[in-house]
Amino acid sequence: MSQMKPEKPLHHHHSRLLTRWPHHSNPYSPFSKLLFWSFCALSLFLAFFLLTPNSPSPNLHSTGDPTQNPSLRRSLRTTNWGGPAWEKKVRSSCRVRRSPNGLTVLVTGAAGFVGSHLSATLRRRGDGVLGLDSFNDYYDPTLKRARQAFLEKAGVFVVEGDINDAALLKKLFDVVPFTHVAHLAAQAGVRYALQNPGSYVRSNVAGLVSILEAAKSANPQPAIVWASSSSVYGLNSRVPFSESDRTDRPASLYAATKKAGEEIAHVYNHIYGLSITGLRFFTVYGPWGRPDMAYFFFTKDILKGKPITVFEGHGSAHTVARDFTYIDDVVRGCVAALDTAGKSTGSGGKKRGPAPLRVYNLGNTTPVPVSELVNILEKLLKVKAVRKVVKMPRNGDVPYTHANISLAERDLGYKPVTDLQTGLKRFVKWYLDFYSVKKEAVKEHGGLATE
Ligand SMILES: O=C(O)[C@H]1O[C@H](OP(=O)(O)OP(=O)(O)OC[C@H]2O[C@@H](n3ccc(=O)[nH]c3=O)[C@H](O)[C@@H]2O)[C@H](O)[C@@H](O)[C@@H]1O
């Protein structure tokens, strides 16, 4: 009842205002009618323009919150794609040069750290590869553009678009019969989830569903390999972490969205017969890495003489350690996962038989304390770090990670061969080259090869 009350006075007020309006602005005058209809026509035109998926419009690589802002969401859906020239580039990027067994792979997050390395590796061995990336500014987009430049040189076209853009995904699957999707696009980083939780739900949950929806409707259905995370082990205290261990106690929203992804994978495998492999990456590092990761910004800050914050654990878990895994080892694991994926069995959105559903740890099996990581960086950079040792805040971090990789060893032939000292040496060399003289670095490396 109380909600009904204001209506009367408002209406009353409104009609009083009408009677006071001068003649030329009276809404019932011919001029106002004309204004009214022009406004309607313009609104209709704008609505049509914004909702049409293929309409060319300026590219917005925004990381704003599209679920909070519907107009931004629309703008993400109208990214500049489509047309004969664009389709030609897509097809040529997907042309297999390793017949007859070459794969045709859609790599999401292709301008990202693991995505760019994987795309280059696949293209080098002759597979057809198409990249997809939103180039958002979670971290410096110029680094993503530099990776894209490498990929273009290697013959990989990176489509600029959002994984939540269903019309774009449908178009890609209509143009190319992908045999595989390497789904690496995600909102990464454990601690950033405290600042921007929505972004994790959008990318890691909604985005994954969007990819699986497109894949289940595609004909043929591709096999999916996607990036889960070691963080799903959360507060698990059994070491080393095995795939059969508990993963129902995540310590961060990031971990929770990756765990949710593993459950979602089960659903799409069960209902639609999609072949799905989740890879639990263990703190992947190396050249062309992510600036939001500790080894990367420690390097930057040590060189600048800025203090770095080194976390230490609480009580018996005093040493904070990670099973740091070198990029080339992880990429070999990804390639093996694609090669052994097995086929999806569905068609026309219907399951025709059981399909593989797999999860593997891709770690290094040798956890290293973060303090030791800093020691190695100091030696390589020849600069003493200014350390601020603090108790680990409740920020989503777990004290340690340690992978048991026997399953990946058995099924994928996965065998990491790079220790932290060797991998960081390669990273530091790349870092110094890339950030002091960018162009020279690009020429010298001549690709993403790091070995
Ligand atoms: O293994 C994984 O699945 C995850 O690995 C990393 O997460 P994390 O291991 O936390 O990597 P960093 O953020 O680089 O942190 C490495 C270590 O440095 C510590 N750290 C971090 C930041 C800092 O200021 N000080 C500090 O001591 C962290 O506690 C952690 O032990 C990635 O950022 C995640 O995207 C990925 O999913």
From TrEMBL:
Keyword Disulfide bond among record annotations: no
Molecular-function GO terms, alphabetical: UDP-glucuronate 4-epimerase activity
Entry-linked Pfam families: Epimerase
Main location: Golgi
Domain of life: Eukaryota
Location(s), subcellular: Golgi apparatus, Golgi stack membrane
Catalytic activity from the UniProt record: UDP-alpha-D-glucuronate = UDP-alpha-D-galacturonate
Membrane-crossing residue ranges in chain numbering: 34-52
Keywords, comma-separated and alphabetical: Isomerase, Membrane, NAD, Transmembrane, Transmembrane helix
A cellular-component GO term for this protein: Golgi cisterna membrane
Domain NAD-dependent epimerase/dehydratase: 105-340
Gene3D superfamilies: NAD(P)-binding Rossmann-like Domain
Record-linked InterPro entries: Epimerase_deHydtase, NAD(P)-bd_dom_sf
Enzyme class, first EC level, given as a word: isomerase
SUPFAM superfamilies: NAD(P)-binding Rossmann-fold domains
Membrane topology summary: Multi-pass membrane protein
EC code: 5.1.3.6
Family of this protein: Belongs to the NAD(P)-dependent epimerase/dehydratase family.
Entry protein name: UDP-glucuronate 4-epimerase
